[in-house]
Design goal:
The complex is a heterodimer of chains A (490) and B (250). Chain A is α/β, with parallel strands linked by helices. Chain A is 26% helix and 34% strand. The two termini of chain A are 15 Å apart. In chain B, the strands form two sheets. Chain B has a six-stranded mixed beta sheet, with helices on both faces. Bound molecules: adenosine-5'-triphosphate and magnesium ion (MG).
Chain lengths: 490, 250
């Protein structure tokens, strides 16, 4: 134990807050009054210039939400959230949804620059080969502030825009698909999101189109006491392909902030969606003060045959994470994948996992989960794999590995497996390990200091998942893993 | 120059080293032989700076610097290298990645720049070829599923890349087939230089035919009980340790 204990002590001694995205942007905002009622819902809808059907959809969700209770089954512990003490809408003042980059407040552009996300197309073009370009939609508090490469994508027939814009300009698509994967009444947070979501991204890939670049959304919470409720809807029409990346950061604040997003993916026949997330919301300080409460519903529907949806996530931030990106394998021969790295440090609590619901014939799914716990954190993998009566030849492989650093943290695995079809074959493997003193010493004897040794061993532990990430993201993720273990262990 | 004076060390309260005196000058190779459990590996761990191996008496100085307060990675940067008797598996970390990380960590500690990727690749290709380490092995996670001999060759590859000035080889010959023994010995001999000190721990005279030592020590029950020239190893091979072990007990 000695080497590892020493690592922990050393890391503890370092100034704990290494969260480098913790700055606040000083900008005037337009805020909805605190609290939630039908007027606020109508206010948000009016701000977005929404058609009546959308307002009605929201109101229905709101009425539904009033009858629901906060779920308590997850292994997370936090003081009751006062939903009346939040702002449900915050927007950078002056303009309502800028039309071009020139209209975006320079302070905000600056914020994204600091985060390492250039929004100007020229800047992006300057440094990258064409095939490595990434189109970005940046969401700042409740509003999408800039979407890049729109024209070029439009040429390919791809729609990539803020969802508020899609509601106005592509109502037929939104009406057809919104809520078709995560129904309005799905769960407490999803229903709340349905009532008050302010912005998010919308993607439509037409039949047979391979999206010419990676699409990406960066979410940034800036305003205090504000909930962020984004809504993302991605539709891959027959035979299309898209890879989508999502990144998140927030300032360092003493109060907890609520983030309750909903992501819906729809893959039609032969289509493929790859969705990658690097979630790095502010995790709170060394004493567990502050941080984001992240209650997210993400679900993909392999609606037609031969479709495929892959979720890859790197979760390092948030005080509390409640998140289960799932796949409904409805189409015959459809495939679902879930690759996850979840790192909890300090006082963080993570309850995350996936659901693979096999409905169609010959459907297969694969789950690789790597949980790393350090400090006094709690890290739970919760996974459900089920086969419907008609899901003949359903296959699942689950590998669920936990790594503990120190002896004050916890790792938990909660698998639910349910098969109503005798031809289904589900395999589940789970391991729990510690970084051994011998491994630490071996690395140290080669010249690595304690932190370098931990980072190397952990990066080895998560390698299977890192390999699933798009190149540039993989490098970022590896750095992020090192930083998050550096800063808040102990 | 390595100077060990009256070194006593214990692990978990067990006294294992009981007063070792040893001086190894630059350019010298010292062999340490001795029965199982006599403390050879313990000495190598104490030299490398493993936690839990506590020096209760005596000193270790290297090039005039007292090593008692220096951690393992600092000693590595100062030139220490231990080829492990039982190399440790690092799952998921490609051997190549490990080598680069180690090399750069040491360069950083010495205030040097990181090695460029092309330079590194060239270096690794050159060194691994000499040791019969295949590119395929370099892609595999370090030591995971390596055969006993492959592990030992990977250790020597690390040594030749890191170019330490104080090399401790703990039973590097065990588990090697005849050809591998020759290849590894050649690798070690290549590193033989007037600036480098080596301590070679072994049970077999055979290795010392290839790596010819200047001095041979016999370690028994945590003490050096006999020191001689290379002919001492031959004698031990013939007569075993009984004489020295008994002598010590008497
Ligand atoms: N952690 C420990 N706790 C108690 N005893 C230990 C511990 N580590 C080593 N020892 C004991 O110390 C003694 C010396 O061990 P060491 O590994 O140094 O021997 P060695 O000379 O290298 O033997 P071999 O030739 O078998 O490799 C042995 O009796 C061993 O059991
Ligand atoms: Mg030994």
């Amino acid at each position: 134990m000695a080497a590892v204990q020493e690592t922990i002590d050393q890391v503890k001694a370092i100034d704990v807050d290494q969260y480098k995205y913790g700055f606040v942007t000083d900008i005037e905002s337009e805020l909805a009054p605190k609290g939630l009622n039908e007027d606020i819902v109508a206010y948000i809808s009016a701000k977005k210039d929404e058609p009546e059907w959308m307002l009605n959809w929201r109101l229905e969700a709101f009425r539904r939400w009033k009858t629901m209770e906060e779920p308590t089954w997850a292994r997370v512990d936090y003081p009751k959230i006062d939903f009346e003490d939040l702002h449900y809408y915050a927007a950078p003042k002056k303009r309502e949804g800028p039309k071009s980059l020139d209209e975006v407040d320079p302070e905000i552009l600056d914020t994204y620059k600091k985060l390492g996300i250039p929004l100007s197309e020229q800047e992006i073009l300057a440094g990258v080969a064409p095939e490595n370009r990434v189109a970005v939609d940046a969401v700042f508090d409740s509003v999408s502030v800039a979407t890049t490469f729109k024209e070029e994508l439009a040429k390919a027939g791809v729609i990539f825009c803020p969802i508020s814009e899609a509601i106005r300009e592509h109502p037929e698509l939104v009406q057809k698909y919104l809520g078709s994967v995560v129904p309005v009444s799905d769960n407490f947070y999803a229903t709340l999101n349905s009532a008050v979501f302010s912005d998010g991204s919308f993607v439509y890939i037409p039949p047979g189109v391979r999206c010419p670049m990676e699409l990406s959304t960066y979410f940034r919470i800036n305003e205090p006491n504000t909930g962020q409720f984004e809504r993302t809807l991605i539709i891959a029409d027959k035979g299309s392909y898209v890879s989508y990346l999502e990144g998140c950061t927030a300032p360092q604040r003493d109060e907890n902030q609520l983030h309750a997003a909903v992501v819906e993916l729809v893959a039609l026949e032969d289509a493929q969606i790859k969705y990658s997330t690097v979630q790095n919301w502010y995790p709170g300080d060394a004493d567990g003060k502050g941080g984001i409460y992240n209650f997210v519903t993400k679900r993909g529907d392999c609606r037609e045959k031969n479709s495929k949806i892959s979720w890859t996530q790197v979760e390092t931030g948030s005080a509390i994470t409640w998140k289960y990106p799932s796949c409904i394998l409805r189409g015959d021969n459809s495939q679902g994948e879930f690759y996850s790295i979840a790192i909890s440090n300090g006082h963080q609590q993570i309850d995350s996992g996936t659901k693979m619901i096999h409905l169609g014939k010959n459907t297969s799914s694969r789950i690789i989960s790597k949980g790393i716990s350090a400090g006094v954190s709690q890290n739970t993998y919760r996974g459900q794999v089920s086969a419907h009566r008609k899901a003949s030849n359903a296959r699942n492989f689950t590998q669920c590995d936990s790594l503990l650093i120190g002896d004050k943290c916890g790792a938990h695995t909660v698998p639910y497996i349910e098969s109503k079809n005798s031809t289904a074959v589900f395999e589940h493997e789970a391991t729990t390990s510690k970084i051994s003193d011998d491994q630490m010493f071996y690395c140290q004897a080669r010249g690595l200091d304690d932190e370098e040794a931990v980072a190397l061993i952990v990066n080895g532990f998560v390698r299977d998942v890192i390999q699933q990430l798009p190149m540039e993201f993989a490098v970022e993720a590896q750095k992020l893993i090192s930083i998050s273990l550096e800063g808040s262990v102990g | 120059m390595l100077e060990i004076k009256n070194l006593h060390a214990e692990v978990d309260g067990n006294k294992i080293l009981r007063g070792i005196d040893l001086v190894v000058r630059p350019g010298e190779i010292h062999a340490i032989m001795g029965p199982n459990g006599s403390g050879k590996s313990t000495l190598s761990y104490v030299l490398a700076g493993k936690d839990d191996y506590e020096i209760t008496e005596g000193t270790i100085t290297y090039n005039g610097v007292d090593w008692s307060e220096m951690s393992a990675h600092e000693r590595a940067a100062a030139g220490m290298f231990l080829a492990f008797q039982y190399p440790i598996e690092i799952p998921g970390v490609a051997t190549m990645t490990f080598l680069k990380t180690a090399l750069n960590a040491q360069r950083k500690a010495r205030g040097e720049d990181e090695i460029s990727t092309p330079d590194f690749m060239k270096l690794v290709r050159e060194k691994s070829k000499a040791l019969n380490v295949t590119p395929e092995m370099l892609r595999r996670p370090l030591n995971v599923g390596f055969s006993g001999g492959e592990k030992k060759r990977a250790e020597i590859l690390q040594m030749s890349l890191l170019e330490p000035t104080l090399c401790v080889l703990d039973e590097t010959d065990s588990g090697l087939d005849i050809d591998a023994l020759r290849v590894v010995s050649e690798g070690v001999n290549q590193l033989r230089s007037p600036d480098r000190s080596m301590i070679v721990i072994t049970h077999y005279q055979r290795l010392l035919d290839h790596i010819v030592p200047d001095v041979v020590h016999v370690l028994s029950k945590g003490k050096i009980v006999k020191t001689g020239g290379k002919e001492l190893a031959l004698e031990l091979e013939k007569n075993g340790y009984a004489e020295y072990v008994d002598e010590e007990a008497a």
